[in-house]
Amino acid sequence: MIDQEAQKLKIFTPFETKTFRVAQPVFLGRGSGSGILLIHGFTGSPHDYSFLAPFLAEHGYSVMVPRLPGHGTNAMDFLNTRAEDWIRRALDAAADARGLWKKVGVVGLSMGGLIATILASTIKVDSLVLAAPAFGVANASFNLVPLFRFFVREIPKNPEEIPQFEDPELQTLSREYWSKHMVPALYQLWRVKRIAWKKLKHVVVPTLFIASEKDGTVPLAAVQKAYDNISSQRKEMMVLKKSGHVVVNDVEKELVAERILSWFEKTMGGA
Question: Which domain covers residue 51, as residue numbers?
């Protein structure tokens, strides 16, 4: 009976599923003033904010970093989540944040930037940072995902593309999430991107865009196009010279953190 009910609900998470320690949600600070909600990217986890989250907390902000469904666990769990699950989790986190803090800032990385855009058009927040938001993808074949998802389930990556880690948990996550392109999940990312583009014109909150010339995943031109099309009257663009895609945790992470801190101080009046 349980299995039948699970099938009706489309619950196919492996029995041994767990969230790895490095991917656990993060909550720092207990203040009721200003807080920051950080939304990670596609196949990422709260670990993406391992530098920025404590940095903001050290400067007086409360910080919340939820784990999006299917992330930080295993590939099968991931493949049984949809765009709606990821967006709903972020909306719930924003509602929690608004109940805890007087002012709420949001940072979204990559797909998290798309979700943050949808969020800011849907629920009241006070300030927004879109870090390498995936409004476009460098690999042109990404636009064909809606078609070839019917024929291909996964595409292996070249060995040199797969990140290696000394931490055994990160190495396991690399094997589960970063060793191949999971086409059904990419289709869900494509759907998030399409929704975010439609919502962009409804975003009026102060917004800081961050992009990098060396980002091999999201082209600078795509971020610039989003910057040009957002309805926010108060907006700025930070362009990095050296960072890769995960701009909040790369070689210029200190510069990025300082700029984000400065942005929230200007737009929310500080912690």
Answer: 15-268
